[in-house]
Design brief:
This protein is mainly beta. It has one domain (24-150). It is 9% helix and 29% strand. The chain contains 1 helix and 8 strands; from the N terminus they run αββββββββ. It has one helix spanning 24-37; strands at residues 40-44, 51-52, 71-74, 78-86, 99-106, 113-117, 129-134, 145-150. The strands form 2 sheets. It has a 5-stranded antiparallel β-sheet with strand order 6-5-4-7-8, with no helix packed on it. The chain is globular. The protein starts with 23 loop residues before the first helix and ends with a strand. The structure holds zinc ion. Zinc ion binds at residues 45, 47-48, 50, 59, 61-62, 64.
């Protein structure tokens, strides 16, 4: 190989960037209910009846705008819609691999919430009934649900 061939040079660096943003009326209520009451809130479209969890302001199928008065409690039990097992660490993942990410459709909701699922090796399956395990100290983030686990009984 010639000495004239360009080779990429990688520089390691660490960047910290704190930020703060307004979660919006619906997002704020979602996080406050989760933090203060351990309740998982969704939102029901008054026009077509679709229930979103986590909640959003606009209904995708019918473009109806929803508000705080449309929020409904969902779960806490849910059903695994799909899942993946993460085998590699990532700088942005909040926990070390290996772990399972699952899409959980909470009871009363039509959409699914992505979150961690802790269960025995090989136990995870679509259709599995699960329940949330809340963090010991809730701070108003999605990680106030520490993870889901197989539902008791
Ligand atoms: Zn709708």
């Amino acid at each position: 190989m010639s000495d004239n061939v360009f080779r990429p040079f990688e520089v390691d660096q660490h960047i910290t960037a704190m930020s703060r943003y307004y979660a919006g009326k619906i997002g704020s209520r979602f996080f406050v209910e989760l933090r203060d009451k351990g309740r998982i809130m969704g939102i029901k479209c008054a026009k077509c009846g679709k229930v979103y969890a986590p909640p959003r302001q606009m209904c995708g199928p019918c473009f109806h705008t929803m508000g705080e008065s449309d929020m409904v409690e969902v779960g806490p039990l849910g059903t695994v819609v799909t899942f993946t097992r993460v085998e590699y660490d990532s700088a942005v993942a909040p926990r070390k691999a290996p772990f399972v990410y699952a899409l959980v459709r909470l009871d009363g909701a039509d959409t699914a919430l992505p979150h961690f699922l802790e269960c025995a090796e090989g136990e995870v399956a679509t259709g599995m009934r699960v329940e949330p395990v809340f963090a010991g100290e809730r701070k108003g983030t999605i990680l106030d649900i520490n993870h889901f686990r197989p539902a008791a009984g």
